[in-house]
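Batch 3, record 17
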Amino acid sequence: MKKQILIIGAGTAGTMMANKLYHEVNADEWHITIVDRDNTHYYQPGFLFIPFGIYKPEEVIRPRTEFIPKGVHFMIEEVDKIEGEKNQVVFKSGETMAYDVLIIATGVEIAPAETPGLKDKLWHKDIFDFYTYEGAVALANKLHDWPGGTMVVNLAETQIKCPVAPLEFSFLADAYFTEKGMRDKVTIQYVTPLSGAFTKPKATEMLNQLMEEKRIEVIPDFYLSHVDNDKKTIVSYDGKEVPFDLLISIPVNKGDAVIEHSQLGDEDGLNFVQTDKFSLQSKKFENVFVIGDTTNLPASKAGSVAHFEAEILTENILSYIQHKPLTATFDGHANCFIETGFGKAALIDFNYTTEPLPGKFPLAYVGPMDLLKPTLTNHMGKLAFRWVYWHMLLTGKKLPVPTHMSMSGKINETKKETTLV
Amino acid sequence: METIVMNLPVNAEGYLLDPNTWTREWAQEIAQGYGITLTDKHWAVIEWLRKKQSEGVALTIRKVGTSGITDIKEFYQLFPGGPLKVSSKIAGIPKPVSCI
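Prediction for the assembled complex:
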């Protein structure tokens, strides 16, 4: 009988793993199954563009099956819990499925119900999210004939999917209202629990003036306690209040309930799976591996991170099934575009230990992309990425970007010179 | 840019460069600068932060609030202003940051 690799979650990370492993493992020995609760794959980076009419809603949806290899078994089922001691998962239906190797790729979702008053009578009327398809589409309709006022962009937590998206949203909102000729009727406030919109030294130095240029007021150190629907204010734990006409909320992000049911998460109750930050193996079970947004790694929750993790995890799973030590190590590498509006974008490239630095990417001196600097080329890169995502990334094709972060092209802040290798 | 505070090097924002050089006396001096007199509760939070940081945990206000030592409301009372920022500085660990 064949052995079973079971992948829970057919989003970005799970789909990449299904493709990579399918081409690497011996099909006579191994059977690969991937399970998800539905057959809709969202291009999540596209949600950001929907409120401003840059992408049409239908441009971000495809069936999951389109990206899953024919030889991989795709199941539509809802997993209730993982029973690690028994090497099996239990479905909502009560049926079970045994595995030899399990990959958890269940992602994270917004959890507005975690904050009192957030998902209340103003939800999707004057309070919107843009991290869900429904939220982004509802917000597009709202912005279409919104007369202006105070737009508050608020991050309820620091550990969120795509941490730069709220900044990008603010920049795109500035451009959107400017192009509509109504920027003077709109106040944009960026309210964050962190010490500022940018917190790393080089990013602060290079990008902080963007907030001023775009007239986005930053309110730092604001940790959301609750939303007052009657007064239309957000209230912090230390009693500060910020009034809004339109609240763009980035709610608390939580991992899937299956993590809670399986007791695999951190103590903070956010259902992020306890994961070895180098090998991507679960800290509880040696035949369970974790990838993408659902890990508790001190890395960004972003598609590029999942992509780099997929390269490492494929290597480690192949080692594991051949009873070899897990030698591939993930370095926390992330590579993200930051839309800054008016056809420009910045690019950041960093890992666990190296902050985003200025310079050229991917080639020293040549680029063609600039790090930590808004340029037209970077924006073209961001738009081209949608094609890359559907046609190359999900199906596990090699991308021309190194898995481990490279210092090549970056300007070393202490030596003040460009690193070539 | 580095400066020296009470014989220990700190970065431009006053965060201790090397958590291993931290002492309780240093912490007391930094706390005083914020008008905070450290009680047993403060120390329990500081020790917890140092332990978690050494384990490589990305610290958040929520994590402190679910540590069993204090809740978020009390955390704000213990370290007014930005509680995680202030307590991290006193605990001699790096500033809580985002990816950028």
